[in-house]
Amino acid sequence: METIAPNLPPDFAPRQAKALLVHERLCAEYGAPFRFFSSKDPLSELISALLSHRTRNQESHKAYQQLVARFPTWEEVRDAPTEEVQAAINPCTWPEQKAPRIQAVLREISTRCDGPCDLEFLAEVPVTEARAWLESIPGVGPKTSAATLLFSTLRLPAMPVDSHHHRVAQRLALIGPKVGTEAAHALLSELLPPDWSAQEVYDHHEALMFHGQKCCYFSAPACQRCVVLDQCPFGQKRLGGVRSSEPAAAGT
Ligand code: SF4
């Protein structure tokens, strides 16, 4: 896992304790350890993550399958007429934006690596440096970099934060109500033990994501049956206010 910031805020310890308690309960609730769903190489995972931005899984999967069927190598995607790439990824949202972005990312990687590059070298780089390398590519944000490192065959302990995970973390006051998804990556990652394996980091992400999908809905969360209600100021307030001894959340 990434290194914890040296100057921790005073509420860090209680938030970390809460994050670990929530982890335990939600992992038990949803059946961790979870199987990794992907076995893509890191460059393929990066392109898949770029396609998945604000797109349903089924649609981004179809776009990815069409893209690799039309272009057998990433060099061919990089060098193809953009309109052909756009047509191949048509099932995902904003193909007209994603096609040139994907080609620009592939060109940037080729330039940096001085030729074809599958990103396998990132396995030998500390996670923090690997994330920084990826996020310095225009168009690659923290969610994409973490997905590339964790979900791919690299299996490195970098944590993505999707919209479900973000919503659950905000309601639990693990982060403040004004912290956006991008900023949440660093704040939520630093709550996890630095020696956690990729499997533990994956389980944490998946458990919070499942909770957002199966209980902590965007509208009308099912707080009455929530296994972390006693840790959740949002849910307690919704149900009539049980107590309010929560520490102030980071980054408010
Ligand atoms: S108590 Fe309600 S708002 Fe809080 S985590 Fe559970 S379902 Fe979400």
From TrEMBL:
<protein>
    <submittedName>
        <fullName>HhH-GPD family protein</fullName>
    </submittedName>
</protein>
<dbReference type="GO" id="GO:0003824">
    <property type="term" value="F:catalytic activity"/>
</dbReference>
<dbReference type="InterPro" id="IPR003265">
    <property type="entry name" value="HhH-GPD_domain"/>
</dbReference>
<dbReference type="InterPro" id="IPR023170">
    <property type="entry name" value="HhH_base_excis_C"/>
</dbReference>
<dbReference type="Pfam" id="PF00730">
    <property type="entry name" value="HhH-GPD"/>
</dbReference>
<dbReference type="GO" id="GO:0006284">
    <property type="term" value="P:base-excision repair"/>
</dbReference>
<feature type="domain" description="HhH-GPD">
    <location>
        <begin position="51"/>
        <end position="214"/>
    </location>
</feature>
<dbReference type="InterPro" id="IPR011257">
    <property type="entry name" value="DNA_glycosylase"/>
</dbReference>
